[in-house]
Design goal:
- By secondary structure, this protein is α/β, with parallel strands linked by helices.
- The protein has one domain: Roll (CBS-domain), CATH 3.10.580.
- 36% of the residues lie in helices and 20% in strands.
- The protein contains six helices and seven strands.
- The strands form two sheets. A four-stranded mixed beta sheet has the order 1-7-6-5.
- The protein is globular, with a radius of gyration of 17 Å.
């Protein structure tokens, strides 16, 4: 399994910058309908991910849903660096599969830590199905 072949390139991936405001992050989250988004520093290095839950906790902490109040905090204030750890583009298939079992998406970084893209759980499952000769158009029995 080639990680680069499965990867959705960074240019096709929604990302946030740690310097953006929480309001900007919320607007991005609402627009893209994802449950988690990778976060980059100003040099494009992957620093962690933020989830819907992280934004909800920030709203509760602020005590208001007023968008103006969310402009006072930065993505870096709610970032969980240990959530959704990245893998090197050189990682083995076994490591990619293990990570995809724990995470909805796996950030992929180069040797500098710069985000190259993400590998989604759906892509990993699709590739495993292809390798097993399972047609992805088949519907489970009972449907």
């Amino acid at each position: 399994m080639n990680i680069a072949k499965l990867m959705i390139p960074k240019v096709c991936t929604v990302v946030l910058r740690e310097s953006q405001t929480v309001r900007q992050g919320l607007e991005t989250l609402l627009r893209c309908h994802y449950t988690a988004i990778p976060v980059l520093d100003d040099e494009g290095r992957y620093v962690g991910s933020v989830t819907e839950g992280d934004f909800l906790q920030q709203i509760l902490k602020a005590g208001t849903t007023d968008p103006k109040a969310q402009e006072r905090s930065r993505i870096s204030d709610i970032l969980r660096k240990d959530f959704c750890p990245a893998l090197s583009i050189e990682e083995s298939s076994a490591v990619v599969v293990a990570a995809a079992m724990r995470q909805n998406f796996v950030p992929v970084v180069d040797s500098r830590g710069a985000l190259c893209g993400i590998v989604t759980r759906q892509r990993v499952i699709g590739e495993l199905a292809r390798l097993a000769g399972i047609s992805q158009e088949e519907k489970p029995s009972g449907e």
